[in-house]
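# nightly structure sweep
# worker-07 picked up a monomer target from the shared queue
# config: single-sequence mode, recycle default, output format = structure tokens
# input follows
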Amino acid sequence: MFCSKCGAKTPDGYEFCKECGTKIEVNAKQDNENNVPVRKKKNIKRSTLGIIIFAVIVVIGSYYLISSSKGKDGLYNNISWGTSLKDIKSMVDEDDNVSVREDDNIINADITDYEGMQGIDGIVSYKFENEKLNKITVLMLNGSDSKYTDSELIDVYIEKLNKLYGEAEPTLSDYTDGILAWNWESKKSKITLSRAIETLVVLDYEDITKGNN
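# output follows
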């Protein structure tokens, strides 16, 4: 604050000027001037907080958008078509629960309790053309200790795939005469689900981007 008579600066809380003894009268203008720095600090804090919150929302939104987009590509475990045989073998070898068998242009991975389903043993066959991944076949063997019937196991995957790619129309299976199959098409894959024989359910992923990898 400043003395209205002599202009000397007077500390807040003083009633009289230290220089000339005049009674200090606080007017609205001086009071506003004294509060300006405090308000500026508050505004800066609010602005910074708003920017941080906005950045967090953008990051979270981008994560879910990317995750959703990947899921709808129709890639098995998000493995890209055209991945090399060497890279697939390296990926599969990293999983301690997988037993790997390698044939000519095929890598077979034996998985106990496939996708956490007790009593369902899986064989995932990664198939290659010119050492580039172009098809994946999942064989699910429905064991005697499984809690699923063949039909229930198929229904689990129909529901899951319908949510991602739309409702499939049943057709006849390529594996067995008179057996139904379900087909979906995503951005990058043709996906087919069927029962090959009793207790054996087959899920095929096939590259439809050939030549674009």
